[in-house]
Amino acid sequence: MEEIVKTIQGVPLNHYILLSAVIFSIGVVGVLTRRNAIVIFMSIELMLNAVNLLLTAFSAYSGDASGQIFVFFIMALAAAEVAVGLAIIVMIYRNTKTTDINVLNRLKW
Q1: Where are the domains positioned within the chain?
Q2: What is the per-residue pLDDT across 53-102, written as a single tens digit (0 to 9) for each?
Q3: Which residues, in sequence order, are CB contacts of 74 under 8 Å at separation 6+?
Q4: Dist. CA 28–CA 79, nearest whole Å
């Protein structure tokens, strides 16, 4: 375990912060600009992975495992989100024959 921490600490922390910011920004742009529900869910997963990377890097640099434990909770939340989100997308596709979120106003009363 010490070898992994030393390897992670060999890269400056600001590189991890920059990489996480870029990945998170790509996810935000995907959520704001895309109209496909599947792509939006993938963008949300990308943002969660950016946060996980940052939490892991901060945890390794501080020498405390609490950040890495928190990553497991985020991964469990992401798995639940994927399961529920995929079920919602399947039901929307069955009703509208598309995954375009602009068409969802047809599902209103």
Answers
A1: 2-103
A2: 999 998 888 888 888 888 999 889 888 888 888 888 888 888 788 877 77
A3: 48, 51, 52, 55
A4: 19
Mapped onto helix, strand or coil, the DSSP state of residue 100 is strand
Q: At what angle do helices 37-62 and 13-33 cross, to 10 degrees?
A: 160
Q: Looking at domain 2-103, which of 1.10.10.410, 1.10.287.3510, 3.40.50.2300, 1.25.40.10 is its CATH number?
A: 1.10.287.3510
CA separation for the pair 17, 7 (Å, rounded): 16
Query: pTM value?
Result: 0.77
Residues 36 and 99 sit within 8 Å (Cβ to Cβ): yes
> In this structure, what are the phi and psi dihedrals at residue 65, rounded to the nearest 5 degrees?
-85, 0
Half-sphere exposure of 92 (CA within 13 A, CB side): 20
Token output for 37: 């529900």
Do residues 50 and 24 touch, judged by C-beta distance below 8 A?
Answer: yes
